[in-house]
């Protein structure tokens, strides 16, 4: 019972952190499109790579239940799923390490990791998606560490559900198949797990095809050629992408990156089966995210970051690092680290130039500080007809439509600017 109280405490703490630092105004990026869909209240009926069927429909359901507007319903879902994910990380590490301090530290490190913290404070699909992915890994580890084999079935269910949130999770299918291979003798659970996943996965295609969409529609989009572009880079660009991915990793996990690496080494030595499941997941997700040809590819690393956080906990729990228990509180200084890094870069000439170039959406604050309170808003930017030194029309198109919708409900320009 104590471990659940600790998980509940972590949920409450991070709910307060994420809520208090959450966006003041609708941020730049895809955020306004999601809020617009939520405000319209029209349930998604197709599941393509960009509709994020389960996410938007969950927001609309919350909006209808609570009476909140699209913005606040989105905030509630994102902050809640963010805090819940931190708790799941804690419970998962506790299941494999049986060590309280290492589990709590890993959860805190993940909760404060830049990419996850940032996405827990804006209107995006990735926090909600990470919650379902974390449940999948929770069920996987529980299947290995406990005799309750029903977790084998839950692994298939959670992974299947996650595909309805974000199709990127097909990258976890190889890991799921490796996982099932190790439990093939547990036929009572092996087949139901495979069946549950298969039905949930197949339903994506059935839903779309029944409405006249092409068979490939669940994993394709007519809004861009990102996948094709990913194969057209030069060798030098691939090297730069890989170096950038390491920079993301270190900025997310700082000094705890070492323990994440060591955790993988220790797992390989102690539990090869579990290691190969997570290796399959890591290679697919990390490889795709590293070379995917989009400017904000950092968000696609989040499923891998869940794995790495679990590895951090496993590494910390090793007897050789027991002495670190007394200074595990140091993870609470991670937010200070972001501020120091931000101030350091801001003092450089390149930092100043970048800050000025990106000033329209917050400059370095937007890129180096995870908290979003007091941020620049896309609606105000659009109403005031401001300009940016780079294309933003793909954001302002949705912003214009949302502004028109709000005006039809009686909002004035000044009221809209505050949203």
Helix content: 55-70%
Oligomer: single chain
Order of helices and strands: HHHHHHHHHHHHHHHHHHHHH
Number of domains: 2
Protein structure class: mainly alpha
Mean pLDDT: 92
Distance between the termini: 42 Å
Main sheet, how many strands, which sense, barrel? none
Taking pLDDT < 50 over at least 5 consecutive residues as the criterion, the unreliable ranges are none
Overall 3D form: globular
What fraction of residues sit in β-strands? under 5%
Subcellular location: Cell membrane
Organism: Chryseobacterium herbae
InterPro entries: LipidA_mod_glycosyltrf_83, TMEM260-like
Transmembrane segments: 43-62, 74-93, 99-117, 126-145, 151-182, 189-209, 248-268, 275-294, 300-317, 329-346
Structure in words:
Its main location: membrane. It is a multi-pass membrane protein. It comes from Chryseobacterium herbae. Keywords: Cell membrane, Glycosyltransferase, Membrane, Transferase, Transmembrane, Transmembrane helix. This is DUF2723 domain-containing protein. With 419 residues, the protein is mainly α. The chain folds into 2 domains: 367 residues, no CATH class; 40 residues, no CATH class. 68% of the residues lie in helices and 0% in strands. It is built from 21 helices and no strands. Helix 7 crosses helix 15. The longest helix has 28 residues. The model has no long low-confidence stretch (mean pLDDT 92).
């Amino acid at each position: 019972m104590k471990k659940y109280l600790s998980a509940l405490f972590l949920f409450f703490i991070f709910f307060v952190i994420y809520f208090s630092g959450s966006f003041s105004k609708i941020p730049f990026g895809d955020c306004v499109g999601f809020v617009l869909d939520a405000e319209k209240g029209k349930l998604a009926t197709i599941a393509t790579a960009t509709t994020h069927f389960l996410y938007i429909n969950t927001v609309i359901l919350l909006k209808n239940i609570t009476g909140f507007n699209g913005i606040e319903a989105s905030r509630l879902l994102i902050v809640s799923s963010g805090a819940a994910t931190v708790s799941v990380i804690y419970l998962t590490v506790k299941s494999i390490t049986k060590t309280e301090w290492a589990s709590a530290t890993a959860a805190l490190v993940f909760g404060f990791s830049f990419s996850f913290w940032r996405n827990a404070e804006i209107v995006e699909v990735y926090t909600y998606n990470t919650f379902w992915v974390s449940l999948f890994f929770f069920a996987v580890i529980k299947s290995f560490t406990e005799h309750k084999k029903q977790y084998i079935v839950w692994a298939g269910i959670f992974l299947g559900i996650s595909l309805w949130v974000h199709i990127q999770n097909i990258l976890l299918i190889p890991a799921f198949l490796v996982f099932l291979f190790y439990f093939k003798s547990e036929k009572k659970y092996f087949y139901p797990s495979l069946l549950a996943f298969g039905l949930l996965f197949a339903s994506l295609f059935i839903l779309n095809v029944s409405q006249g969409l092409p068979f490939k529609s669940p994993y394709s989009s007519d809004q861009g050629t990102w996948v094709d572009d990913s194969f057209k880079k030069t060798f030098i660009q691939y090297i730069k992408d890989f170096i950038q991915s390491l920079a993301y990793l270190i900025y997310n996990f700082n000094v705890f990156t070492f323990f994440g690496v060591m955790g993988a080494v220790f797992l390989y030595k102690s539990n090869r089966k579990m290691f190969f499941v997570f290796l399959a997941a890591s290679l697919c997700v990390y490889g795709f995210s590293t070379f995917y040809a989009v400017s904000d590819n950092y968000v696609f690393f989040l499923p891998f970051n869940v794995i790495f956080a679990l590895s951090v906990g496993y590494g910390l729990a090793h007897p050789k690092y027991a002495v670190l228990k007394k200074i595990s509180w140091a993870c609470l200084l991670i937010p200070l680290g972001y501020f120091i890094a931000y101030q350091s870069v801001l003092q450089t000439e390149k930092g100043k130039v970048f800050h000025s170039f990106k000033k329209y959406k917050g400059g370095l604050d937007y890129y180096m500080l995870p908290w979003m309170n007091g941020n620049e808003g896309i609606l105000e930017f659009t109403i005031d007809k401001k300009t940016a030194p780079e294309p933003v029309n793909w954001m302002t198109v949705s912003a214009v439509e949302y502004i028109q919708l709000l005006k039809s409900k009686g909002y004035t320009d000044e009221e809209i600017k505050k949203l």
